[in-house]
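Listing 4. Sequential folding, example run.
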Amino acid sequence: MITTDEAGQVHARPPAGRPAARPVGWTTRRWLAVGACVALVVLAGLSITGAWVFARSTQISNHLVDESSPALVAAVQLEKSLTDQETGVRGYGLTGQRSFLEPYTSGLILQRQSTERLRTLLRHDRASRGDLGQLLEQARSWQQRFALPVAAAPGGGPIPVAAARADEGKQDFDKVRSASSRLQNTLQQASAKARNDLRAAREFRNWIFSLIALLILVMTGLVFAGLRRGVTLPLGRLSTDVQQVAEGDFAHTVSAVGPADLRSLAQDVESMRERLVAELAFSDAARSRLDEQATDLRRSNAELEQFAYVASHDLQEPLRKVASFCQLLQRRYGDQLDDRAGQYIEFAVDGANRMQTLINDLLAFSRVGRLHSDSATVDLEQLFERIADSLSLTVGEAGAEVTHDPLPVVTGDPTQLGMLLQNLVSNAIKFRSPERPCRVHLSARREGGLWSFAISDNGIGIAPEFADKVFVIFQRLHTRDAYPGNGIGLALCKKIVEFHGGTIAIDNEHTPGTRFTFTLSGPAAAPADGAPEVVAG
């Protein structure tokens, strides 16, 4: 609904819409959460199974590598050590030479090492430990009954004990060989069983891993299909509808499909489309109303300009006549008037002149931003030199020295910027201190995207409590007799700076005197380096 207030401003009242019922059902987040949980549970179960199978195969492999195979090797070494002992003892019994006992001695050492090795490796294998015990028992019987007596007999010739016990020793050692064969057979069977178990565990592991890969592929396909059906296709349809509306077809309805949250989003977009349709209808009506107001505003501004022009002439002409006739009266009849009458005539002339000055200042204040609004690049270096030339007489009478830093090029209206600088410099000279020579300096520096300027003087200064008051029109801090003026200068400066997008303020920390700081926009190029230049003094 379109309305206008008392000032003629156009306003819109959005049409009241009925709240749409929110869609029910599972949202995309819920579907994804449930699907992810199911997938994680399945993968966790398969992973635990796979980890168990892998650990089982690793255990069997370690047992085969670390126990079964080394035990079989140790059993062979143990048999070799016993065979070396039998060979050495038999040779020594036949010849009586001590050199034949070297295999017997080394065999005893190897037997002890192999026995210790087997006992360590077979600590978990009861059957093999039993075979090992029988083998060691037979070996000990052979050694006590044959090997030790022969080895202990003196040499130098055939050993009688060896000849007497040869048959008995052979029978005992055959029992040793038989026990050793049983031990090796038992170890070989255990090793074969371990290899078979390892082969079965590897096959089971491969089957589990293949099942995991298959399930991952199936779940990937299901996820892809679910996302396509529940997310991609509804989003694609929503995107197509939104694009069609964005291209200007505001009559196209946005359909709501898919999970609950996507349907809710589509309903929100549809509500926004309906509001846009209503706002466009309002915009068309408001545009025509604003065009009418703009036409009225331009006509009103033209009438105000005409009024200001006429008022300036119609008001100044009677003031000029009053001043002229008062001065003529004073010259022609001055000898007939007393001193009080002459004073009254001076008051009238002064009032007329001040009224004329006030009218001119008010016209200049009202024209800021309207008549002089040309935006161009302004070289402040050249502009300040022209202002210094125009104020040279005032500067000379005050004995002032006006200096400035190298000044940049800024963007703005040259006429208004000239009024700004001239007012600030004139104020600095007007409110100079009688106790010291007047010094006025204009500085410039770059701050971000703006130029910051400061006009400093060593005059009488401004109290901090009046720092804001001096920028209000017609506000004066001194009497007109002490310092002439209408109280418009600084208000005009503030209006000019704000029209150029800057700010102006008083630096209360500067002493003695006053420092006005203001900002203007301009190119980023810095002014030429150099010492402060004296333009008047």
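-- end of first protein; second protein begins --
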Amino acid sequence: MILCGGSGARLWPASRPWRPKPFVPLVGDRSGLQETALRAQGLGPLAVLGGAAHEGLISGQLAALAVKATMILEPEGRDTAAAIAAAAGWAAALDPEAVVLILPADHHIPDATAFRAAIADTLDAAQAGAIVTLGLRPASASTALGYIQPGPGDGKVKPIAAFDEKPDAEGAMALVEAGALWNGGMFVARAATFLDELRRWAPEIADAVGAALDEAAVADGVVRLGAALSRAPKVAFDRAVMERTDRGAVLPVDFAWSDLGAWDAVLAAASPDPAGNVLTGAARAPGSSRVLVRAAPGMQVAVVGATRLGVIAEPDAVLVCDLDHAQAVRDAAGMAGGRFASLADAAGWLDAWLRTAALPLWATVGVDTATGGFREALTWDGRPHDPRRRARVQARQAFVFARAAAEGLPGPWAATASAGFAWFEGHARRDDGLYATTLDPAGGLTEPEPRLYEHAFLLLALSALRRDEDAQSLVGRLDAFRHPAGGFREAGDHPFQANAHMHLLEAALTCGEADGDPIWARLADEVAGLALDRFIDPASGSLHEFFDADWRPLTGAAGLIEPGHQLEWAWLLSQRPEPRTQAAARRLFDVGRRGFDAGSGVIVNALYEDLTVRDPGARLWAQTEHLKAALALGETAAALEAANSIAHFLDTPVRGVWRERMDAQGGFLEQPSPATSLYHLYLAIRELTRFAGEPC
């Protein structure tokens, strides 16, 4: 079982959340995953456990070697104890007597023969009930690695006397002199032994993983673990089990090994030239010695007269470091979201991205030339992904392009907006003047029932197209959605919700600014009043998502609080002058900021009612609302954080698309870029350019 996790932050910028360390070729032409898979050939059936976000990377890299393996995919990473519990549980279901070999995907072991011989030496002890780990005889007194002290015993496999986690220099030297071994993080045991010890020492992990396996969806050699995995505490296997069990054992081994934990380790493991340099790609190092220089495709790097220097050049980021300080690269990686040093920098870059990449791409590839309708999504390499035609997409895209034309951005945006909306209107407008929710790509009705949410965006589109009378007519027809207790009732599973009202408020404010008709002020007053009186909890200042028919907030599992919506409401309410509304906007912003994960630099998906994190993943749209709200309320530091997080989501192979969903570990789910987010991006970037004073 190859564990394909970890972020590899010390190997930034080659290692990124969307392509972490196991998938990066560090020593030679193959990635760590590929080298580990080849090394494990012949030892038994192969499986790889990794994040669902990296399914494409895992399958693609194994296919390149013609290696077959079962994939076990985690909806979110929960550290090695949960990963090993899943591996053991899966193996035990296949064969109750199975012995499981756990291998990290990112280690460098050049002597595969010696490695396989060592694994053979562990099997008797493993069959007898031990959990055997491999202990590497130290090549140096490293302070970057953990140590295992073997106890006395007959035979090759020894009992474990103690673990020592990353000592200081003096402690590392004393451990080496005492015969301690490097902790290699590889384990061999019967599946039943792993499970027994996890149940004994980490029952919460065992229970959660067992439930996730019970919920798993299995098809075509892929096991997708269930959502129950999220209940497993995030704990390393060493901490959860090995430091506590009496079944731990270690096999001392002498073969060359490196965890490739930082760039100095990569230099030490690679084959240098006569000057001790390791150069990759179009890299040169005249007059230099013991330097590591990596130039990504399309880049040229020269390092002249340097010693013990690392230069890692990616298309969007460059690291220059003294290799004796390579461990500190993690800190640089933590700040790497800080592409922009100022809001002016952010405005310039994001505005150029919008004008020169996003708008042109979505006005060409993002339009079905056979019909004129707007496509639902594009892949990360800029290809159409187009399963349907939703009203919200057609309306948002028409709004964006019409708004771009009205704001004077160069391009054929007015024609794009008009043609796309005309196609949709011709197929989706009903006899009652409302619009169907979803069409198929050819224009056939697939969901004819109208929804309030979609019509809020249709109002925005009509206003941007300067069809003011049509917008006024349509808003009158929304009386069909009115609820006797006030506000509006939505179609579908959540009839009493804040979200549709939020976008109706946005439409009222936008349309009112465009044509000044009093109907819009009345609607804005009504929705804002409902938010202040019913949607927002007066005690916490938070805004709930779902309600009963009397507009009482739902609680428990249905008591959802989305930080992104707190921020979006804050942006909208900040546009109204009343002191009470301004105070509510400020409190909503503060609640939304409770969802800011400083480690990943993003606004997370959801909070519990006590404002603790419920869903640590993140979506792009919430970052745009963070930026808009921060700008509206003068929170410039938060605005800069938001701008940097947006740029992280825009790091794609083709400019103009985006990564929509981030998992809890900071990796991106491989999903097409939804067209719906262009509206969020457009508004946020235009707000930023105006705030920063960039030319419009």
